[in-house]
Specification:
The structure is a homodimer of 249-residue chains.
Chain A: H1 3-8, H2 10-15, H3 22-25, H4 29-38, E1 39-45, E2 50-52, E3 60-66, E4 69-74, E5 80-86, E6 91-92, E7 105-108, E8 112-118, H5 119-128, H6 130-156, H7 159-176, E9 184-186, H8 191-198, H9 202-214, E10 218-221, E11 224-227, H10 230-236, H11 238-241
Antiparallel strand pairs in A: 1-8, 2-7, 3-6, 3-8, 4-5, 4-7, 9-11, 10-11
Helix pairs in contact in A: 5-6, 7-8, 8-9
Chain B binds a DNA duplex (30 and 30 nucleotides) through residues 158-159, 190-192, 200-204, 206-208, 210, 221.
Chain lengths: 249, 249
DNA sequence: CGTCCCCTTGAGCAGAATCAAGCCTAGTGG
DNA sequence: CCACTAGGCTTGATTCTGCTCAAGGGGACG
């Protein structure tokens, strides 16, 4: 890899949010070079666009670079569950390396940019770069842990707790990645999407949000979220949070 | 590995349920030999015993050999969510290779036997046996897919659908692994456990079971499950099942 | 025989869903 | 420039699914 090549790939190498994640901090430079070989493009998509469609094979894995996206499942009768909200730095479709076709859809929540890596190459990678493979495995396991937490929240928590959990989780993930600080942040989910993520109905979601607003805990309006009373919000999710866990990232 | 060694390890090598899973079919014999090195013991535990406790580090990974177990999370206020019911052949604590301590507890649902593998060795394994690492990664990704399905069921399905899904899922997994055939099978979960898995309350669970029994769809009694009307049961979960997915195993 | 655990059933309540309108804003096209 | 539309937000009224409280029954085991 010449320095010329490097520069042309700079967006990924230097500013890709993934780089900031603890898990990638320990990358050696030749592992980085190796990763760079996978990168085939740096693209963007508009809000609402579907990047991966349930049941349709894909031949690339992506890393979200800017903007938000969501991973969801549709039931035949139209019900929908948002499995995970993806933030800059998250991988998209990692499982398609081994499991095709994907059993979920991915949709852009805002205008986004993302890096595209080649699936075929990634699948073979463990043979050449076992350390890298170890890290990807760890990444997958971390995500699994997150899913278990979300599952517990869906199965055992009230509407209020679910909403509180979702917002707090997003706040934490954004903070950890240095994508924000303070208590207000851009929040591109509509109430319907929030409802689909929380496993609630939109009307009830709206009412829960009103209650939280009235109690001066949290306001979500005009595509922005503002946490007024962090302590109270955390109290609401004492529950899910008690995992000293949450080394989500 | 001498043939003497081999024989002494026979329980794992020849009859471990894992061997029957598609994912392990393709094992080469030296990969198998390699795996055998990890095995440190073949143990058993009584019904009710806790194998892994939330927050307490463990230094071994297991494969369930016989009997059922469950993976669950406790909330500080006592609410509990059963994340997954583990059947013979399932791995226990795979994530502890990279993520310590575990964020869940594992409990034996019946008397069980299991193989114990060494965590340290497994963690280093990718460096020596990349193909094996690939397979473990695939295994983790499959489990993740299962969790996403379960999450969708919890977030979007009715009580009846949840119960139906759970039972049907167990039936399928047992069948695929050749651990049963037909429509009746041993079912060691109590109604409370079933409730904790479905994200329901025990009383409601009891009523749903009664309704399913009355409609001649399904009977769960005396630690046995009997599916009377498979078609009807499947209709109830058309929903979750529609993923042409379910290549769970 | 008593205790513990699990299952079962009833009565009443509440959290969340559904049904039905109406509002606001941004974008579009005449 | 205004009318119209579409998407999203808000609210009320009503229904119902699932939860809580309370009590009793049966089997296993010491």
């Amino acid at each position: 890899v010449t320095s010329g090549d490097r520069n042309s790939l700079a967006p990924w190498c230097d500013s890709c949010p993934l780089r900031a994640l603890p898990i990638f901090e320990e990358f050696s430079s030749d592992e980085l070079d190796f990763m760079l070989k996978f990168k085939t493009a740096h693209r963007h998509a508009e809000r609402g666009k579907t990047l991966i469609r349930h049941g349709e094979s894909v031949n690339h894995v992506c890393t979200l670079f800017s903007g938000w996206a969501l991973r969801h499942r549709l039931l035949p009768d139209g019900r929908r569950q948002i499995v995970l909200v993806l933030l800059p730095g998250d991988m998209i479709g990692l499982d398609t390396i081994f499991l095709q076709p994907p059993q979920y859809s991915i949709q852009a929540l805002s205008d986004i940019t993302y890096c595209v890596l080649d699936t075929q190459l990634l699948a073979a990678m463990p043979l050449e770069q076992p350390r890298l493979a170890q890290r990807l495995m760890k990444l997958a396991l971390i995500e699994q842990r997150v899913l278990e937490t979300r599952m517990t929240v869906l199965g055992r928590c009230s509407a209020e707790e679910r909403i509180a959990y979702l917002v707090l989780d997003l706040h934490q993930r954004l903070s950890r990645r240095r994508l924000m600080n303070g208590y207000g942040f851009a929040f591109p989910l509509t109430q319907q999407q929030l409802a689909d993520a929380a496993g609630l109905n939109i009307i009830h979601t709206n009412r829960v949000l009103r209650r939280l607003r009235m109690r001066d805990i949290l306001t979500i309006q005009n595509h922005r979220a503002q946490i007024h009373d962090m302590a109270a919000l955390q109290r609401l999710v004492t529950v899910g949070m008690h995992d000293g866990a949450r080394p989500l990232f």
